[in-house]
Amino acid sequence: MGAIWTEENRFQKWLDVEIAVCEVHADMGTIPRDAVDKIKRTASFSVDRINEIERTTRHDVIAFTTALAENIGPDSRYVHYGLTSSDVVDTANALLMRDAATLLLEDLDRLAHVLKRRAIEHKHTRMMGRTHGVHAEPTTFGLVLALYYSENERNKERLRRAREAVSYGKISGAVGTFAHLDPEVEERVCEKLAIKHAPISTQVIQRDRHAEFLATLAIIASSMEKIALEVRHLQRTEVREVEEPFSAGQKGSSAMPHKRNPVTSEQICGLARVVRSNAQAAFENIALWHERDISHSSVERVILPDSCILTDYLIGKTEWLIDGLAVYPNRMRANLESLGGVTSSGQLLLELTRKGVTREDAYGIVQPLAMRVWDEGANFHDLVMNDKQVTDRLSREELDELFDVNKQLRNVDKIFKRVFWE
Length: 422
Description:
Blueprint: H1 7-27, H2 33-42, H3 47-57, H4 60-72, H5 85-121, E1 126-131, E2 134-140, H6 141-166, E3 168-169, H7 183-192, E4 196-197, H8 208-234, E5 242-243, H9 263-284, H10 295-323, E6 326-327, H11 329-337, H12 345-354, H13 359-376, H14 380-385, H15 388-391, H16 396-402, H17 405-408, H18 412-420
Parallel strand pairs: 3-4
Antiparallel strand pairs: 1-2, 5-6
């Protein structure tokens, strides 16, 4: 990903656009064919030379075309023929974002493979489901991972749409009116570059497209944070149901040798904030003065490469995290059973209503028993089995069934079929 956003590659994309324009001009008879052949043979650049010229011109595209002219010679007069700077820069940026999105889609495919594999591995690994961070009802770790897989699939679709949204070029001139070139030039150039032409533009491609792309990266980064945040909670000492990889020789603390901290998960959570903040900057770039000002340009030099590189990094780190994640089923089982079956309170509530008790009265029977678990450390199963209000209505066989975790998790296979189409 870093190679896509180097100065060398950025200028190369500018050159790709310039040469495509020259080829179209030659095809349309605007400039001599032999001149284009000469340009293609001799057009070369040095990043150092471009930067040296820019220190004087204080204009990057002029510095670029000047550096090209030094190598091309007289035929350089056909380079940048009828163009304005943003024709080159914006069209080249479309190529860069398209390539970056393609690489990110490959990243997401690899993450999907790991999520699916580990979800199937832990399809029936029981654990405590939590809402508000508090024990709720049983789930499986496979379902947790299947949820992330499903979200990852949506991220892939979002990114495909965002790649389409930014894969637009423009060769329409200083205010988008094609004052110096025919629209056919734009259409042919974009076709050569395997992107679409903007139906209408000003001096620039409109930045709602870029904002959509950056917003999509922000959502992807947030999904990575969502996964990492779960690992951070489940790795807490009091929970300790999973643990991120801890390599030989790794140290957790300069002062406490016992520490094994979820540092990669925390890093993912922290860097996701940067990607989201960059998306906000992209939103600010949508509103420009009239047909264009330059307030967006300096911002994009930071947020486009940084967001793509960070998102690539975050997906890779999340793949590493899930691939090597240590899972502790025995600890999950211990936590699941730690409150003596109190998480079956909802099932008991339903069973009582099936026996004709009003929901309000049933709640009045079940909640006081459940509160004794919290307040006294009592065993919910034992309390229920010895409560006359319950046993007068439900047999022991019926009570045993409602405490059966298998019943609560009987639809896991069906959910997996929905997610993985298997």
